[in-house]
């Protein structure tokens, strides 16, 4: 029985043509080493490179979708739980039967104070936390704090709710700053992986022209905010499927309400103190809170498992090595930049308008006239309008840059004028369709505002050393605006609309003024980012060229040449040989190794 021939020829064995192959090279034990251990003969380097970068691009898309879904689930759980908690605690019967004289209204007021006041100090610690933990791990930590806030509602006491609310307030600005930084970095990575073949004359990779990542950034921001605005709809699921079954109708809750809309004062003046016709069972509440806790835990897993790093490890080292004192100071130094100063009114308005959607339109116009049982559907209309309009930001691929942002401001300006003269009648449902249209249109303006601002910041500040500072400043001003709304919640509706109108006009004029300066070529004054100062030179600094040098280093060069080492014997062990660089142990001992020949 003859032996079957091997499927693949064995290395070192004679081929079918004898001891030489078709090219005349020996194929036996005398074959050259390169022929035995060289590359696979059918290996196509260009095809493998194309597949590699395609996998990289798919990884970036996975990161964007995971971060967007994680943010949507986190805020959906947070807003849904907070809304349900405040409605239950508002009812007098629920408070007396469930908690007696524990003082739930006082606990709720301190909890809201912790959520709204604590972010005022975020400018002092947010850049330090992002540089210390890294962008991805800061996102994970902040989402974990949101999950902690959800878990404290299993045992509602002062010492559980208030500390968790303070921790949540501390995490708001770091979460949003790291999210904005993360999406911008993903757009830059996607551009890098899509244009990997662009090289200069020496075969080296070219630095991409400024603004070349803008189309990808616009698409990624549209995806992110399309997901995020769905969180307002997700937050209404506990209301629709659970709490609405326990609520009184509008004839009971609005019995003493006399004025709504532009004629109202404060929040729901005259609203009935009892809104629950029967109390929910404790077991049912635990089931709802357990579902919310599971969703919050799922958001943590999405960020942890599916979101990749925003920077390479060596880039993270460089970002930290500029000095913690400089990291602390740089957000304040960026105030020199006229672009940021011109955008501050838009940052403030961005905080005003999202709170007005939730308290002004939803409560002052909606609940005040059509009842608490329709609150969820009003916010769903706002959410769906904002989510769909986030994709309208893609029009920025073909339209001039100011168009989406100014269009969103125009929609809000028109709606604000209409709301200024409209006072819906309480307990009348004939005008309810107007409320849903107004909520959806306000969502359209909100989406264009949020998408346009985040995209604009990512285009104006594309240096990786500045992005976390810029997004920290943006969301800190948003937090200041939200705190101002919290302080002025008892003002008349006309005063709120007037402040909103003045801020919107000032923001639009200031933004157009900034664009005019940019067209004239006025150079912004940006603070210098210090060069990384590494205390111990590790393995990654032994090479001649630093492949991870920052953009600022690449532009300005290395500065002065290094000082030549002094002649004579050096302390430490003798180097093992000539023509090599010292190992880290020799550097730690003080020796610089032999000079290269």
From TrEMBL:
Region described as Disordered: 1-36, 522-597
Keyword Cell division belongs to the record: no
Organism encoding this protein: Chlorocebus sabaeus
Protein family membership: Belongs to the unc-93 family.
Membrane spanning residue stretches: 60-81, 111-130, 137-155, 161-183, 216-243, 285-311, 343-363, 375-398, 405-425, 469-489, 495-512
Source species, domain of life: Eukaryota
Protein name as it appears in the record: Protein unc-93 homolog B1
Function per UniProt: Plays an important role in innate and adaptive immunity by regulating nucleotide-sensing Toll-like receptor (TLR) signaling. Required for the transport of a subset of TLRs (including TLR3, TLR7 and TLR9) from the endoplasmic reticulum to endolysosomes where they can engage pathogen nucleotides and activate signaling cascades. May play a role in autoreactive B-cells removal.
Keywords, in A-Z order: Adaptive immunity, Antiviral defense, Cytoplasmic vesicle, Endoplasmic reticulum, Endosome, Glycoprotein, Immunity, Innate immunity, Lysosome, Membrane, Phosphoprotein, Transmembrane, Transmembrane helix
Record gene name: UNC93B1
Molecular-function GO term, any one: Toll-like receptor binding
Localization annotation: Cytoplasmic vesicle, Phagosome; Endoplasmic reticulum membrane; Endosome; Lysosome
GO-annotated cellular components: early phagosome; endoplasmic reticulum membrane; endosome; lysosome
GO BP terms in the entry: antigen processing and presentation of exogenous peptide antigen via MHC class II; cell morphogenesis; defense response to virus; innate immune response; intracellular protein transport; positive regulation of interleukin-12 production; positive regulation of interleukin-6 production; T cell antigen processing and presentation
Topology term for the membrane: Multi-pass membrane protein
Keyword Membrane recorded: yes
């Amino acid at each position: 029985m003859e032996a079957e021939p091997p499927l693949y020829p064995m290395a070192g064995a004679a081929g079918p043509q004898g001891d030489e192959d078709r090219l005349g090279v020996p194929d036996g034990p005398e074959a050259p080493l390169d022929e035995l251990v060289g590359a696979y003969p059918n290996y196509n380097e260009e095809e493998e490179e194309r597949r590699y970068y395609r996998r990289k691009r798919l990884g970036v898309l996975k990161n964007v979708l995971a971060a967007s879904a994680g943010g949507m689930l986190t805020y959906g759980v947070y807003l849904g739980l907070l809304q349900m908690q405040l409605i239950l605690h508002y009812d007098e019967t629920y408070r007396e039967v469930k908690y007696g004289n524990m003082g739930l209204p006082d606990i709720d007021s301190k909890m809201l104070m912790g959520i709204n006041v604590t972010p005022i100090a975020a400018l002092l610690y947010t850049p330090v936390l992002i540089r210390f933990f890294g962008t991805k791990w800061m996102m994970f930590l902040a989402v974990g704090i949101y999950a902690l806030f959800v878990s404290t509602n299993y045992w509602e006491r002062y010492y559980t709710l208030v500390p968790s609310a303070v921790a949540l307030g501390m995490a708001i600005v770091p979460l949003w700053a790291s999210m904005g930084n993360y999406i911008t970095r993903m757009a830059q990575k996607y551009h890098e992986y899509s244009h990997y073949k662009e090289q200069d004359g020496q075969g080296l990779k070219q630095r991409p022209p400024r603004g070349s990542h803008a189309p990808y950034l616009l698409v990624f921001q549209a995806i992110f905010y399309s997901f995020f605005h769905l969180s307002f709809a997700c937050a209404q699921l506990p209301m629709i499927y659970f709490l609405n079954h326990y609520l009184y109708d509008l004839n009971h809750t609005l019995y003493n309400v006399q004025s709504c809309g532009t004629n109202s004062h404060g929040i729901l003046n005259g609203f009935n103190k009892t809104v629950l016709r029967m109390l929910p069972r404790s077991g049912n509440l635990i089931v709802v809170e357990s579902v919310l806790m599971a969703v919050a835990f799922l958001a943590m897993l999405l960020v942890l498992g599916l979101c990749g790093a925003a920077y390479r490890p060596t880039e993270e080292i460089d970002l930290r090595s500029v000095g913690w004192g400089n990291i602390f100071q740089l957000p304040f130094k960026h105030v020199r930049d006229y672009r940021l100063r011109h955008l501050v009114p838009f940052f403030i308005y961005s905080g005003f308008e999202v709170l007005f959607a939730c308290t002004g339109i939803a409560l002052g116009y909606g609940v005040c006239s059509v009842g608490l049982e329709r609150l969820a559907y009003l916010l769903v209309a706002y959410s769906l309008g904002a989510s769909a309009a986030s994709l309208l930001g893609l029009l920025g691929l073909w339209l001039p840059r100011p168009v989406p942002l100014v269009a969103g401001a125009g929609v809000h300006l028109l709606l604000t004028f209409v709301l200024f003269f409209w006072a819906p009648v309480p307990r009348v449902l004939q005008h309810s369709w107007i409320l849903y249209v107004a909520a959806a249109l306000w969502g359209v303006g909100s989406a264009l505002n949020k998408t346009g601002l985040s995209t604009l910041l990512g285009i104006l500040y594309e240096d990786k050393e500045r992005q976390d500072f810029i997004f920290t400043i943006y969301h800190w001003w948003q937090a200041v605006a939200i705190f101002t709304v919290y302080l002025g919640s008892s003002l008349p509706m006309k005063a709120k609309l007037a402040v909103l109108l003045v801020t919107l006009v000032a923001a639009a004029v200031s933004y157009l003024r900034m664009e005019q300066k940019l067209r004239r070529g006025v150079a912004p004054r940006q603070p210098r980012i210090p060069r990384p100062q590494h205390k111990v030179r590790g393995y990654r600094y032994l090479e001649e060229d630093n492949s991870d040098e920052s953009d600022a280093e690449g532009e300005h060069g290395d500065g002065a040449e290094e000082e030549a080492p002094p002649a004579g014997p050096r302390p430490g062990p003798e180097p093992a040989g000539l023509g090599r660089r010292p190992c880290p142990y020799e550097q730690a001992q003080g020796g610089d190794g032999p000079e290269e020949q």
